[in-house]
Amino acid sequence: MNYENISGLISKLSADLNWVIPLSVTQRIIPYCKMGMSNQKLPVYEKFRLGGSISLPGYNRDELWGNHFIVLGILYRIEILKQMNVQFNFTLGSVYEKYQNFRWNNLSSGVSGGILALSPVGPIGLYYGRNENKRDILYLSIGYEF
Questions:
Q1: Residue 72 is assigned to a structural domain of this protein
Q2: How sure is the predictor about 92, in pLDDT bands with cuts at 50, 70 and 90?
Q3: How far apart are CA 127 and CA 32, in angstroms?
Q4: DSSP state of 118
Q5: 3: three-class secondary structure by DSSP
Q6: CATH assignment of the domain containing 82
């Protein structure tokens, strides 16, 4: 299928797959896969973005932009108090301008760990992330991602 020649309303397609595996009442493992592709004629503000505590730790939020992306990861979450969790995450991912540029051996990697508290305004999290280039970033998030 040559999706670059699609015209009309369909110009961007993405999928987000998660599987929650309970280990006990307080522990969960969550493997996930996110991917997307788009028409290369999209304006820059429509491109896919990666970076942040979950989508690619060790990079600034939305630091990497491209027409296509893939993220593979696994998250381990432990409930330490009611409405408070500690979580650890390992992620592989990248963005590409052209689908043909995708290579499995060209994925960036990152790890993160932090604490997440549920609140009336949404989750509040403080995370530490590090990527394969040994770049360290501290993340603070308040509320849900859009």
A1: yes
A2: very high
A3: 19
A4: -
A5: helix
A6: 2.40.160.50
Q: Which residues contact 31 (CB under 8 A, 6 or more apart)?
A: 18, 19, 21, 73, 74, 75
Residue 133 domain flag: yes
49 assigned to some structural domain: yes
pLDDT digits (tens, 9 = 90+) for 37-91: 887 667 777 888 999 888 899 999 888 888 899 999 999 999 999 999 999 999 9
Any domain includes 4: no
Exposed (0-12), middle (13-18) or buried (19+): which is 87, by Cβ within 10 Å?
A: buried
Domain of residue 16, residue span: 12-142
Residue 2 clears pLDDT 60, i.e. is over it:
no
**Number of domains forming the structure of the chain:** 1
Tokens of 48: 């896919």
